[in-house]
Amino acid sequence: MKTMTTEELLNLLDANEDLHVIDVREDFEVADGVIPGAVHIPLGEIPNSLEQLDKSVPYILVCKGGVRSENACQYLEEQGYDVTNLEGGMLSYDGELEFK
């Protein structure tokens, strides 16, 4: 499984890269803010949300600490998706936040 540090993510965000971030935390957790541009799909809803995802697009998955997003990455990889887990999750992320 591919992984990425929050420093690598911040560098990509600073470079205005076209990123596709999926936040798999629960509703009450994303109320504290998400990575700008992230799409919120709670972990339990991932299997029922595959039609929203494009297998030709690379995704970066994030949760609070990196464990749930790792589980989501494993599942999505098995389904043929190109995914990367954000190491340390939002606990390690100290960049800009977006509130939805």
UniProtKB/TrEMBL annotation:
Gene3D superfamilies: Rhodanese-like domain. It comes from the Bacteria. Residues 15-99 form the Rhodanese domain. Pfam families: Rhodanese (PF00581). SUPFAM superfamilies: Rhodanese/Cell cycle control phosphatase (SSF52821). PANTHER family: FAD-DEPENDENT OXIDOREDUCTASE (PTHR43031), SULFURTRANSFERASE YTWF-RELATED (PTHR43031:SF17). This is Rhodanese-like domain-containing protein. It comes from Metasolibacillus meyeri.
